[in-house]
Amino acid sequence: MPVSVQYDSVWTGATLVTLQEGRYSAIPDGAIAVRDGRIAWLGPRQALGPHDAREYQDVGGGIITPGLIDCHTHLVFGGDRSREFEQRLSGVSYSEIAAAGGGILSTVRATRDADEDHLLAAAEQRLALLMAEGVTCIEIKSGYGLTLDSEMKMLRVARRLAERHPIDIKTSFLAAHALPPEYHGRADDYITLICEEWLPAVAAAGLADAVDGFCEHLAFSPAQITRVFEAATRLGLPLKLHAEQLSSLGGSTLAARFGALSADHLEYATADDARAMAAAGTVAVLLPGACYLLRESQMPPVAHFRQQGVKMALASDSNPGTSPACSLRLMLNMGCTLFHLTPEEALAGVTLHAAHALGVAPEQGSLAVGKWANFVHWPVAAPAELAYWLGGQLPCTVIYRGRRR
Ligand code: NIG
Ligand code: FE
Q: Which residues hold N-formimidoyl-L-glutamate (predicted)?
């Protein structure tokens, strides 16, 4: 008599789009067996051996994908920048608005002024929209406080969101996002403060899972980012970088040289940057929402990334300035239409490759034995439909750690 295996639940009735190896790797008429919140077995339903389960769920058709991962957001912030949206539509550029004290600094003022509960409530509204369309893991950056207290306030809000909602949240400390007005003309002093005082304090408080920066002519130079990366590396913190968004400064090559998890934006990245990222395993996080909203004409060098085997992720970049996006699924569509990704690449970009960009691929990002049972049932016939339907809310059922959310 074969021994019967015990599971908590068994899910059947759909094609499993596993995303193993970053491909659809579909299993028609599949089954997923869950134990202790993790995938204990998956494969064709016919191959599921003798077992007992407390719960059986036949989803009645459609596909099951891994839970979606939004690996680059600025979800916690005060205020909004709809007025700047109007200005940009009338011809004022993002850089001009920033130079006049608006842009990131206007959100800094609103974020400093907001108390923690207010920031939490505002972020919760945006988080709910992302979660409703299948997001089970999200990254949230600081970077709109630019004082130690207000940067920590943002990171605490991100941690509280994780305590209050069934979703995994990774934080990134982004004090090197913009020069705070108090340090006008003294950018190197601000970087010294980040390196010598803020980073150790944030690390000691356990508030940062990674360190990020903005390498750009209107933010920080490669030399300044280098100092931040050296200090973060001494503390053992993983790295990420906003790079090559508006111009080519070699930030992505710099990120690769430090073994960063990801370099993000990358419209102005070069073939050399792609080679450096490939050699280091640094993920290219593409952010079509910001590209679209800034009406950028330069597109990220997807062909080079493909050729070099750089993993490409897609994220919402949800933020009040360049990408007030509350839909990751819309980014699938924009990744295909704007950046010419295939729907399969786009889906890998919000699952397995996004997991790599956060350093969580051993735990999530694909349907595989041992990973968290974070998955989404979509009543659609083909995975390309996730990228195809434009706007609106596709119905879906989200399972987080084995439980219906
Ligand atoms: O990812 N590039 C810098 N940071 C954000 C924009 C921040 C803002 O404009 O508020 C981004 O696009
Ligand atoms: Fe960003």
A: 144, 319, 321
Which CATH number goes with the domain that contains 32?
A: 2.30.40.10
Q: What is the DSSP letter of 200?
A: H
Instruction: Look at residue 255 and tell me whether its pLDDT is greater than 60.
Output: yes
Provide the domain count of the chain: 2
N-terminal to C-terminal alpha carbon distance within the chain = 37
User: Same domain for 51 and 82?
Assistant: no
- Ligand 1 neighbourhood includes 172 CB (under 6 angstroms): no
Please state, in angstroms and rounded to a whole number, the distance separating the CA atoms of residues 361 and 344. Answer: 18
- Given a cut of 60, whether residue 131 has pLDDT beyond it is yes
Locate the ligand 1 atom nearest the alpha carbon of residue 245 and give its number.
Answer: 2
Closest atom of ligand 1 to 144 CA is 10
Query: How many A from CA of 3 to the centre of ligand 1?
Result: 56
Q: Which residue has the tokens 């991100």?
A: 158
DSSP 303-372: HHHHHHT--EEE----BTTTB----HHHHHHHHHHHH---HHHHHHHTTHHHHHHHT-TTTSSS--TTSB
The ligand placed nearest to the CA atom of residue 240 is: 2
Residue-wise pLDDT for 140-149, tens only, equals 999 999 999 9
The answer on 229 and 169 residing in a single domain is yes
Minimal-distance CA residue to ligand 1 atom 1 = 317
Q: In which domain, by residue range, is 36 found?
A: 5-66+366-404
Question: How far is it, in rounded angstroms, from Cα 225 to Cα 250?
Answer: 11
What mean pLDDT is reported for the chain?
Answer: 97
Which of 214, 317, 319, 331 has the most ligand 1 atoms within 8 A of CB, as the residue to mutate?
Answer: 319
H/E element holding 117? helix 116-132
User: Averaged over 241-263, what is the pLDDT?
Assistant: 98
Helix (H, G, I), strand (E, B) or coil at 19: coil
Does 87 carry a binding-site annotation?
no
Nearest C-alpha neighbor of 169 from the set 360, 362, 371: 360
Residue 51 shares a structural domain with residue 155: no
